Every structure is written in structure tokens, then in C-alpha cells.
Amino acid sequence: MEKFGRINVRLNALLAQSGLSKNKLCQRAEMQRTQLNHYCNNTVTRLDTDVLARLCTVLHCSVGELLEFVPPENGGDGQE
Fold first, then answer.
1. Cα–Cα distance between 14 and 76 in angstroms, integer?
2. Kind and range of the H or E element at 52?
3. Residues 65, 69, 73, 77: is their CA dihedral positive or negative?
4. Which helix (H) or strand (E) holds 9?
5. CATH code, 46
6. Which residues are bridge partners to 6 per DSSP?
7. Does residue 30 lie in a domain region?
8. Structure confidence by residue, pLDDT tens digits, 32-60
């Protein structure tokens, strides 16, 4: 696990709860399917605040519901 923990994007779970298809979400959030897949698969390397706002608007959720902080296993003091 990463030294400082990691951020998980919980888009798959929220998408399942919403009942929307990926295609509908792409249309409503004005996203490319490839970009959406990166968010769904937690392979996005830089979070775009505009994209997060669009996803939260379409899915009627908060950023805190969309993103989850997973602390490092060592307690997160940043020391080695």
C-alpha cells in the first residue's frame, strides 16, 4: 500500500445504486467513455474537479460519497 494511503473512487458503487448505464452517465456528465472507465476502475491518476462536480450533479451525491480515503497500513505518519 502507498506510504500516505490512497484515494478510491467509488463510482462503480454509486453507478449501480443510481440505476444509470455507463452510456447514460457519459451523456449526462458530458464525459468520454474512456475517461469514465478510468474513474470506474480507479486508474485515474489526477482528479479533475470539474469532472467530480459533473459526476456528483448527475449522481446526486457529495464528493465524500464519491471519494474514499484509505489510510496507509503503517498509521500514516509519513516516517520510514
1. 28
2. helix 49-59
3. negative
4. strand 6-9
5. 1.10.260.40
6. 70
7. yes
8. 999 999 999 999 989 999 999 999 999 99
